[in-house]
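Re: the 414-residue chain
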Amino acid sequence: MGDGGEAREAGADGNEDLGQDAPPEPSGPDDPPGGRRRLAARLRKHPLLGSAVALVLLATATTVPIVLAGSGDETPCRKIPAATRALAKDPAAATRALDPGDDLARFDAVRELLVYEHPCGDGGEVLGRIVDAATRATGTENPHTLAQARSAFAVAAALDGVELPDGMAPWVARMLAQYVVDQNRYTGSDDDAVRPAVPAGSAGLDDEGWTTYGRFLAPGEAHAEFEHTQPYSDVEADPEQLVAELAKDPEAFAILYSAERAWLAYYLERLDGQGRDPDYRPKPSKGDYETPDTYWVDSDLEHMADRVGALMKYRTRYARDGTIPDVTAFDASVRRYTPGVYLAHTTQVTTRPPMAGIAARHAGRVSGDLMDARHQLLSVVSFWATARKVPKARADAMRQAIDDRYVRALWLTI
């Protein structure tokens, strides 16, 4: 984290014995044929100077001035106007201010509102609170609205390549945790993602019980389309690049790491006793090849492992290049901000609650080294598989899919 400005490109209960974490022989999902082959393939400055500069910022329905202030030889800072500060305490107004619209017509206004070089005082935290207010569901039992989901897209796009000011990162991490299913789905920009967010009706299951928007989705919830892109536009919402910036902050790191582990537990407890998605009923293939009915489950598990592996790879990189000057102190801070371990229920869960409740689930006592992410992931799978009496071959395949992708994600960065 820094003073702000443009970023440098970045290269339920506790249980003391959660099971063995050593996976057997590698295995993984085969490529599905047909209309989903394309999707399956995708899965694989200067500081401002001066004593007073008048800028105009659109916040809600009014314009507010941004004041540039500085003293002596210190780097000048920009004050957050009172009208902008007020958005942090008014979620409805914050959502209106950060909603770019379906056509992104207001995206430039969103970027103007959020991207500050050297905000004064607690300005970074204020901006983060505005992000949280605009994108957070009104309660853990309530689904995200379309405007909130579009705002989440706009935040990720506005902060793409931006070095966040001090105090902002934890709040942006909370936003990604609120949309953990949507941001896990991201593998790159996609021309088929034609809007920054989709309404609940567009995310429903098809006649095979499948949707591109993920598994176990809450009815009535809108979803951010971080893959959305427009021709001849530089607007890109890349959660992976945003995570690279957030991983510098121990509290933000802990929030993201916790959200991924909570999502894993949430996901496992909704699978059937064979480790399959109970909603997915693929039709018989007309060709010689039959798509495994566990294909999309294994792909989702791989995405979770990718995200956790990415966090750990950035931790390693930043420890090496000095961004994290003391990795021991950093890890201690992560532990302080971490609620605990997330275990899947020992009986199958059939509810489909909104995304906001996933990271808010009950956490138990951590077993082993929290920063040994491989152990933390695989031990949760082992605990679930043992409790649910999942066939050994299937449990082994799931562990191997996670292990392979975690190691790959870690290796790709170090």
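The two ends are 20 Å apart (CA to CA).
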